[in-house]
Amino acid sequence: MLLMAENLSKEFFKGRLNKSRIRAVDGVSFSINQGEIMGLVGESGSGKSTVGRLLLLLLEPTEGRIYFNGKELTRLRKKELQNLRKDMQIIFQHPQESLNPRMKIYESMAEPIRLYGLADGKSREKEEILKLLETVGLTEEHLERYPHELSGGQAQRVAIARVLALKPKFVVADEPTSMLDVSVQAQILKLIKKLQREYKISFLFISHDLEVVRAISDRIAIMQKGKIVELGEPEQIFSMPRHPYTKYLINSILNL
């Protein structure tokens, strides 16, 4: 087991005097194994993206514990947590969120490599960048472009390559294909499966699309109103759904 969430909850306050509480995540528990893709599916507002950010401690949990590689993250000091950051990464729904619009792709790719001192000298740096581009299906010609000169699929591949540069053990993929057309979506899903297979990276793959999650996941967790209401392997979820909400999601697909 690589990662475990135990009774994880998150409350947000709203209103003029912050007196009103919203429990976005409510007592969520699950684990993710080394090299496993866990799908997390639910409608907008179900709390699934909040779970992803909690696991990376981009948000502080209101309650609960998170364990990564045997360490309780919620107890680590800031310095200890910083040392783990490269092992735990995120792919955003909008790749532009991780790409500086003023930087050419080469500089964006070089940024994490330089930050963590992962290449000794310029020639080694470029060699590493070209290798990463090849892994995600891009070429050297993309390096001199700016993010706005790339297609959505190309920009997402660059974002994935930046994450891959750090050789992470765990990645939260937060709706990484939802803004892409169907053909490009399939290519990105294939790429994520390749990274799982070749690099043994574990993923939490977040989506509102149960069909997409079914195609890529080893296990699926169904989330509704801040709670995980069902968890199992894809075939079990689809052939013998137990919770009414899971049945509703499956029927929604069948009725399209």
Helix content: 25-40%
CATH architecture annotation of the largest domain: 3-Layer(aba) Sandwich
Q: Any idea what the shape is?
A: globular
Per DSSP E runs of 2 or more residues, the count of β-strands stands at: 10
* CATH classification class of the largest domain: Alpha Beta
The domain count comes to 2
Brief summary:
The protein is an alpha/beta fold.
Question: What does it look like?
Answer:
- With 256 residues, the protein is an alpha/beta fold.
- 38% of the residues lie in helices and 25% in strands.
- The protein contains 9 helices and 10 strands.
- It is globular.
Give the arrangement of secondary structure elements:
Elements lengths: L2 E12 L5 E13 L4 E5 L6 H8 L7 E6 L2 E2 L5 H7 L3 E4 L13 H11 L6 H14 L16 H14 L4 E5 L7 H18 L2 E6 L2 H7 L2 E6 L2 E6 L1 H6 L4 H11 L2
Parallel strand pairs: 3-8, 3-9, 6-7, 7-8
Antiparallel strand pairs: 1-2, 1-4, 4-5, 9-10
Structure keywords:
single chain; six-stranded mixed β-sheet; alpha/beta; 256 residues; Rossmann fold; globular; 2 domains
